[in-house]
What we know:
The chain is mainly β and 249 residues long. 6% of the residues lie in helices and 49% in strands. The chain has a seven-stranded mixed beta barrel with strand order 1-2-3-4-9-10-12. The chain is globular.
Amino acid sequence: MAPGSLSVSNNPIPAFAPPYTTETNDFADVSLLIVTYRTSLEDVRSLVPEFLELEEEPLVTAMIVTYEMSTVGAYNEYVHQVEVVYDGKKYDYFLSLILNNEAAIFSGREQFGFPKTFGKVTLERNTGTGLLLGQVEKPEGLAVANFGFAPLKKLSEMPKPDTPKQGLNLRIIPSPIAGAPASLKELIPSNFEVTGGSVWLGRGSISFPNTMEHHPLYRVRVLRYENSVYIHKASGILHAPTAIFTVKD
Length: 249
């Protein structure tokens, strides 16, 4: 008998052929179509953990992002967030991310707790009209979200909020023992920094054409729209978190 020779450290599984790097999370030629709107508390409450607080009309951010290159390759992604308060501080809590790249899904779920799942995401800029159109399918062939954006004005830079917010993920690893508490349950702040690119202010919209419960984000209805922007050919970096919050049973 002899032991194996593989050193197990911080590599993701399979440790002998990690599916993604844990060193950096860099992105190039990133384009983002961002639509923000207000929804009702009752529409989103059932999708948010009980230890996070919500306003009466929570602010929701929905976006389609295209990454021409990154440390996990190229892909398109749909992102849906809602503003919450945890320990007196505001965050954008991630409700759902849909994309078509397994390395990005593994990396996002395992390291950072992003609720990423497979699907098809498209963003069409050349539509023969003044509109940009986006669509999210889950599974492929079944549309669950449609985006529209009419550009109105080119801005000199990305509008900056008065108080910057981080994203927030709930990372859970269920126990393999039936009836046992989760092996891991924690909140992970995230900071995706976008720099450069051209920024366009416009009129954005989002609709949810399907009400199947496998993607319940259709419940997060639009009460009224806030700002919408399109950012073209920017750079991005997902910064490593500096703190993790343990969730107690």
